[in-house]
Amino acid sequence: MHSVDPVFLLRQMLRARALEETAAQEYAAGRIAGFLHLYPGEEAVAAGVLSCAEPGDYIVSTYREHVHALLRGIPAVAIFAELLGKKTGVSGGMGGSMHLFDAQRRFLGGYAIVGETFPIALGAGYAVAYRQLPEAIICFFGDGAVNQGTFHESLNMAALWRLPILFVCENNHYQIGTEIHRHSAVVEVYRRACAYNIPAERINGMDVLAVQQASEQALARIRAGDGPQFLEFETYRYRGHSMADPGAYRPASEVQAYQRQDPIKELEGELSTQANCPAGDCVLQFQEQCCAAGHLNSERLQGLQEEIAEEMRIALAEAQAAAAPSLTDVQAVFQKNHRFEDFFGRGAA
């Protein structure tokens, strides 16, 4: 079992928020082209789930994948360079925001087509199971993808073949601009998994410790040979569907209510408040334990924030200074062949 380090989880969430806010600024300045789907508000899911992943596990993500890539270990500079279309980007500057890919870290990509993650994860899961390898596949998707045929087809086959896949639904309640009660007959997404006899739970996706615990347990069952598992994390995105979406379809009161549940602010409060904090600041027992243990004080928190800001500043500057890919670079990418064995023919080193 992974030991839980609250400060590590907080650091990952702060890095995620800083990466995305920096990307938003670059997009607003016209230096990032195309669509840009941002993650603020959902950081607890990525931090909690990916803290449980082993180096040999495979990650399949959606078009909202920058944070998944960062927390999987892809350097911020490689992500920024990709967003800016530079040759030092993680996909050579030719994938852009929705197509980050890193074979070394077994990050099998972000995919722009809604529901495309399912068959990709299914194929990876089959390859791993066929070779009796110890890895798991973590498949991220949103609530808007669960009405796709690929969802049902893939869950059925994953259950039938008992594939080592953790299905992770990031339920932020909106399929672009359509609220889940208006696009789904079954709004409790995790209940859909019962049709395929896949164990499923619904978890508060704004609580990073709850996310981490549920993910750890689900992955342990997968590694024990119990077949696929399904976790639905209720979360919320603070921005619109993409940078081109002002999100006017959401009531301001709803957005404000979720912002008051900001997982980063809550965790900062838990870790930085001293043991003699005023009544109400440490409602849960864990919060009180963190205060008493003194995991983090205000000075250390400020230092952490400054360290992350500097990391993002340096990464962005390096990415901006990089060259754009040339025609030769493009030709090299198309001529490069990855063997199947490069991904699934052996266990993790």
From TrEMBL:
| Cofactor(s) of this protein | thiamine diphosphate
Pfam entry (one): E1_dh
This protein's name: Pyruvate dehydrogenase (Acetyl-transferring) E1 component subunit alpha
Sample GO molecular function, one term: pyruvate dehydrogenase (acetyl-transferring) activity
Gene Ontology biological process: pyruvate decarboxylation to acetyl-CoA
What organism is listed for this UniProt entry?
Igneacidithiobacillus copahuensis
Q: What residues does the Dehydrogenase E1 component domain cover?
A: 12-273
Q: Please name the PANTHER family in this protein's record.
A: PYRUVATE DEHYDROGENASE E1 COMPONENT SUBUNIT ALPHA, PYRUVATE DEHYDROGENASE E1 COMPONENT, ALPHA SUBUNIT BACTERIAL AND ORGANELLAR
Q: Which InterPro entries does the UniProt record give?
A: DH_E1, PDH_E1_Alpha_Subunit, THDP-binding
Keywords on record: Oxidoreductase, Pyruvate, Thiamine pyrophosphate
